[in-house]
Amino acid sequence: MPGHIPSAALLDEVTQESFRDVLGNFCSGMTVITAMGADGPVGFTCQAFSSLSLQPPQVILCPGRTSTTWPLIRAVGLFCVNVLAEDQAGLSRAFARSGGDKFAGVRWDSSPNGSPILSGAAAWLDCRVHAEYAGGDHTVVRADVRGLAASPGKRPLLFHRGRYTRMADDDAPGSGAPLPLSPHQPAQGRAPLTTKDPKEQMR
Asked: Residue 154: which of 130, 120, 186 has the closest Cα?
């Protein structure tokens, strides 16, 4: 039957694996959240980001409860959301890892709030933390937008079924093929459960 949806899993059948498998069908953009910490610039890759309100302008993001970077940004209270461009998959991977100097070799400028704006980003938003809420294994952060800008010629980096991908050109069917993968990513299909995706790492 056209449009038929397979039988839904019962509540007691919703496992971490099935939850990830189904939500992997939702395509999202990738961001890097940055701030100027007490000891220098800090940042982490964040897939769980969304606009929240037009009036007042607000956004939400959801760092993992185990993140070691978010507490450093929370202490500052100000941060920048860098919307990654399609050629910045390398930055997404770099800021998703734990430890080390994530800004080594990375070009950036200061936003009006003093937070790092990553060079080449498709867009950026200067934000102030408004409130935090418990969200299971993540923290839901509500933030006020204090400044923003975009590069019209840039296309966003996308993430779908465990892989980075890009938008297709309207006049070139099939050009939206997945980006070349790193040696740490599977050649086919979604990432296995043993491989942390950027949203889960958020360090």
From this structure: 120
How many Å apart are CA 28 and CA 97, to the nearest integer?
A: 19
Model-level pTM?
0.76
What tens digit of pLDDT does each residue of 89-138 get? 999 999 999 888 999 999 999 999 999 999 999 999 999 999 999 988 89
**58-92: pLDDT as tens digits:** 999 999 999 999 999 999 999 999 999 999 999 99
Span 37-62, pLDDT tens digits:
999 999 999 999 999 999 999 999 99
The rounded distance, in Å, linking the Cα atoms of 61 and 141 is 5
Neighbours of 177 (CB within 10 A): 9
CA 15 and chain centroid, separation: 23
Sheet of 123-135, strands arranged across: 40-46, 31-37, 78-83, 123-135, 138-150, 58-61, 49-53
Residue 29 burial (10 A CB sphere; 0-12, 13-18, 19+): middle
Positive or negative torsion for Cα 69, 75, 81, 87: negative
Phi, psi for residue 91 in degrees, rounded to 5: -65, -40
Say how far apart CA 154 and CA 72 lie, in whole Å. 30
Alpha-carbon dihedral sign for residues 30, 102, 145, 153: negative
| Cα(17)–Cα(172) distance, integer angstroms | 35
